[in-house]
Amino acid sequence: MSRQASPTAIGAFVLGALVLLLVAIVVFSSGALMRERVRLVTYFPGTVQGLNLGAQVQFQGVPIGQVTSIDLDYLPGDDSFRIPVRYEIWPQRVHIVGESEDDDPRVVLRRMVSTQGLRARLESVSFVTGQYVVVLGLYPDEPEPEDLPQEGNVVQVPAVAATRDRLEEMFGDLQLNELVDNANKTVKALRELLKTSDASNSLTNLEQILAETRELMAGLNQRLPPLVERADDTLLAYGDLAATLQSRVGTLADSLEQTTADIQRLAGHVDSKIGLLSATATSSIEDAGQAMRAITDLAGPASSTRVELDRLLGEATRTARSLRALTDYLERHPEALIQGKR
Predict the structure, then answer these.
(1) 13 pLDDT above the threshold of 90
(2) Which distant-in-sequence residues (6+ apart) come within 8 Å of 37 by Cβ?
């Protein structure tokens, strides 16, 4: 008879298997079951093709979470659809440097949405695979959102149109049918123009111009090498001339420096001589002034010398008169020199 299995052993085995399973889940999930999560939702306009469950949520290229659900809502009141994308971020991936007034990350996120322009947009990871991720970023120029409905602890982040949505809108605004019609009309007009005689003449003239251009280019190719050689020779001659001028300019500069030094010495010598001449001239002028003052004093009306000179001049005048009278008498009576005056 076979031995009956022990219920205790079976229970211990099952319990051990459960413990190993839990340990494996914790290890292979890298602590994802134990980390804190903040749930967010964004209603993206347009299509979310390429966005899958588990796609990364990034902030300026840094992974901080993942997409948890992509749903489709129908709004009977507006008869429209919307696509809510729910995702979670992990506060542990953000390191707070310094002190913070708010410890609740939800409060911080709602404040960033209203004041700093926190927005979400879809961004392509690869054009080959067509996969997209949710990228959070700050857009301060975006208008402040209206009152956003809150879903419990879920933070609603407004969306920014993705690049592909903007391209689709831009191409939608382009009237492609009209552009195609205009292109067809242009091609048709060109065909009709090419069939005319003027177009044929123009083409013939164009061919002649091209042929002349080729001949001109061939002539230039033949003449360019001698011109290049002459240019090289000219450049060499200019180089030699520059070297010669540089050597002579150095000699002239030395001569100019010596001449400048001589002029400076001459100017100093002249300054010293001018100083002496100025002093001598000043002294002579002062002496002449004193002589003129002395002459002025002698010739003045109240001067005693003037009076004596006047008296002497008077006596000399009277003497001259007496001599003139004596001369006249002797001329008339020369015998008076022998016999005397009678």
Answers:
(1) no
(2) 65, 88, 89, 90
